[in-house]
Structure formats: structure tokens, C-alpha cells
């Protein structure tokens, strides 16, 4: 990993920690997703003159980043707090609101803005890439520590 990417990762993880993401696993996974989403959006903006596809991919990655952000916050709340009916209700309402918001954004992008569907859906799969990179980094750290 280059020094500048390591510096960016460290800055993002530090910011996530100050925002309440105390669990290292959630923070690392979310940081990876933010970097992928940022790179996709940057490439989409740079290549906008060529095609709308890279920007649509970046939009899908951004939607996935928002969703992963909310899921990470919800998971931390469940882990750190004593479960109660109020907490369960808050989690359900938050999940429903996130689902509604993402549905409205998809509707706006697909119907009103006529964004191509294939790259938008491919952008949603960027979470899979984040999880894969996170898993590979965990395995490589364990391998290095064992030798």
C-alpha cells in the first residue's frame, strides 16, 4: 500500500473513530468501502465526458456506502447497548427509513435521470469487493504474525 493511501486510510479510520465507530472490524470495512466509493466517484466524474457508465457505477457505490454506514451504526448499537423493545423498534424504524430512502434514490436515478441500470447495479456490488479486500487483509495479517 502506498504511503498516501495509507495516510488517507488512517485519516478516514481516525475520523470514523471520532464519529463513534469504536469496533475496529466495522471501521476497517467501512473505510475500505469509503475508499472504493471515492475512487469510483472520482473516476466517474473524470470520465463523464466519455460515458455516463462510470458515474452510474460511482452512484451505486455511494448508495452502498450509505447503506453499509447505517448497518455498521446499527450493529454497533446492538453490540454496545442492552437490548430493549425501544432499541428493537428504533432499529426497525431505521432499517425501514433507510430502505425507503434508497428506493426513492433508485427511482430518481433510474426513472427521472435515466441512469444506465447495469453500472448502477455493478456499483452496488462494490460492497462485495470491500468485504473481499477486508478478508484478504485479515488473512494476510494472520499469516504474517504466525511466521
Structural commentary:
The protein is built from six helices and no strands. By secondary structure, the protein is mainly alpha-helical. The protein has one domain (3-146). The longest helix has 28 residues, at 53-80. It is flat and about 50 Å long. 22% of the residues are buried.
Instruction: Please tell me the total number of domains.
Output: 1
User: Helix coverage percent of residues?
Assistant: over 70%
Report the span from N to C terminus.
21 Å
The chain-level mean pLDDT equals 88
Summed up, the helix count is 6
Inertia-based shape:
flat
Number of strands: 0
Strand content: under 5%
- Tell me about the largest β-sheet: none
- Summarize the helix and strand pattern as letters: HHHHHH
Structural class: mainly alpha
The whole-angstrom Rg is 17 Å
Multimerization state:
single chain
Low-pLDDT runs of 5+ residues are: none
Amino acid at each position: 500500500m502506498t504511503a498516501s493511501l495509507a495516510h488517507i486510510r488512517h485519516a478516514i479510520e481516525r475520523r470514523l473513530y471520532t464519529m463513534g465507530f469504536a469496533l475496529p472490524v466495522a471501521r476497517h470495512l467501512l473505510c475500505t468501502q469509503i475508499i472504493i466509493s471515492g475512487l469510483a466517484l472520482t473516476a466517474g466524474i473524470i470520465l463523464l465526458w466519455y460515458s455516463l457508465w462510470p458515474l452510474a457505477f460511482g452512484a451505486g457505490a455511494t448508495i452502498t456506502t450509505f447503506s453499509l454506514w447505517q448497518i455498521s451504526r446499527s450493529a454497533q448499537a446492538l453490540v454496545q447497548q442492552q437490548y430493549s423493545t425501544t432499541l428493537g423498534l428504533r432499529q426497525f424504524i431505521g432499517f425501514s427509513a433507510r430502505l425507503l430512502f434508497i428506493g426513492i434514490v433508485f427511482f430518481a436515478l433510474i426513472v427521472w435521470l435515466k441512469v444506465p441500470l447495469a453500472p448502477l447495479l455493478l456499483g452496488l456490488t462494490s460492497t462485495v469487493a470491500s468485504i473481499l479486500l477486508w478478508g484478504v487483509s485479515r488473512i494476510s495479517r494472520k499469516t504474517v504474525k504466525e511466521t
